[in-house]
């Protein structure tokens, strides 16, 4: 039985050398904790990134607001110009049709039969002019 006890003793002696005593562990000095590199610096870096992000976000939002304002300001003018072009094309088309039918331009010496028609046309023209001026005054656009 001495053989088994010798192997157990050998195992215990190797375990004893690998295990340190509690007093050795307690007497050992630990490396100091570097709170600056572990906590403070990462926190400050994150705070700086957040501030940079907010500055970029504010710049992008400001540019978006300026673009939207420019678009909303230019839109009525562009739509007005587009509508004016459309109306001019329609008027040109109507004049061409009247010219084909022999109604445009008006004769220089109106006969007595065309006099009431000319007066009616003149009154209609004046009425349309007054309506245009009233609409221009209401919308603030130039006639």
Walk me through what this model shows.
- The protein is an all-alpha fold.
- The protein has a domain at 38-106.
- The protein is 80% helix and 0% strand.
- The chain is built from 4 helices and no strands.
- The chain has helices at 2-18, 22-27, 35-101, 115-139.
- The longest helix is centred in the middle third of the chain and has 67 residues, at 35-101.
- The radius of gyration is 48 Å and the shape is rod-shaped.
- The mean pLDDT is 81.
- Residues 1-21, 95-115 are annotated as: Disordered.
The largest sheet, given as strand count, sense and whether it forms a barrel, is: none
Alpha-beta content class: mainly alpha
State Rg: 48 Å
Helix content: over 70%
- Please give the alpha-carbon distance between the first and last residues: 123 Å
Query: How would the global form be characterised?
Result: rod-shaped
> H/E order of the elements?
HHHH
Report the oligomer. single chain
């Amino acid at each position: 039985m001495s053989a088994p006890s010798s192997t157990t003793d050998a195992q215990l002696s190797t375990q004893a050398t690998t295990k340190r005593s509690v007093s050795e562990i307690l007497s050992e000095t630990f490396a100091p904790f570097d709170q600056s590199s572990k906590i403070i610096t990462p926190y400050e870096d994150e705070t700086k990134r957040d501030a940079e992000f907010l500055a970029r976000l504010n710049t992008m939002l400001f540019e978006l607001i300026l673009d939207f304002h420019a678009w909303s300001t230019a839109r009525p003018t562009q739509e007005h110009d587009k509508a004016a072009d459309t109306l001019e094309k329609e008027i040109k088309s109507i004049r061409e049709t009247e010219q084909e039918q022999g109604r445009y331009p008006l004769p220089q010496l109106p006969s007595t039969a065309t006099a009431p028609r000319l007066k009616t046309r003149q009154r209609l023209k004046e009425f349309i002019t007054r309506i245009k001026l009233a609409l221009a005054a209401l919308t603030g656009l130039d006639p």
